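Limitations

Structures in this collection are predictions, not experimental determinations, and the ligand pose is part of the prediction. Treat each record accordingly. The example that follows, with 6-phosphogluconic acid as the small molecule, is included so readers can see exactly what is and is not provided: the inputs are given verbatim, and the output is the predicted complex.
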Amino acid sequence: MKTMSQPEIVVLPDLETISRAAAGRVAALAQACDPFTVALSGGSTPRRLYELLAASPFRERIPWAQTHVFWGDERCVPPDHPDSNYHLARQALLDRVPLLARNVHRILGELEPEQAAAAYRAELLTALGDDRRFDLVLLGLGDDGHTASLFPGTAALQERTLAAAVVYVERLASWRITLTLPTLNAARHVLFLVSGANKAPALVRVLAGEPLPAGLVRPPQGQLTWLVDRAAHPPKTSGRP
Ligand code: 6PG
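Predicted complex:
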């Protein structure tokens, strides 16, 4: 029985250096997988990574024709809405690289939430097959320990059958579609990108093994990597004044 590999934790100086390190890993995985299936994360942290992937030298290293792009989650808004994760990726990456349109598997945020989730589940089944295994899932960390749109206390966090689910985030008054833990944990590689001092308290708790949503992402047959900057993972003080 393969034991769960230990998470790899890489601490680098800042957002630029973790983004460059992530770009190198994305490119290496893309070259090793044909087809290459990747679920993009949302929020603001990955913007720099996406910009790097769309520019030299990374742009030339990635076999875009065999790359399939998905999302780890999406806000239930139209694709041109400023809150849309697709909108972020389109501006920073999709419009700048030769991906095939049929290989961009957008979550249809403009639909009613249940319809959007059902459509995405069908897309995942068609594109990934029964094993629903992504080659790479990119994830961020919320300051409350959420990841994708798996927020603490939400029913979606308990979903063990459906590959993607609807979630209503009370504190944000926001409907979301999110990949569920079974899908995240089926991935061959999971790469968290975490930047900023506001993430440090949640990151400490997650890495200490607390069952916050991000801490439940432990792919048993996959490699888990945390790329974090110094602000999110400050050196342990010796306790001396
Ligand atoms: C989203 C993301 C979410 C994000 C974290 C961190 O749709 O918002 O999927 O999980 O990764 O909230 O967001 P920032 O990168 O903006 O800090």
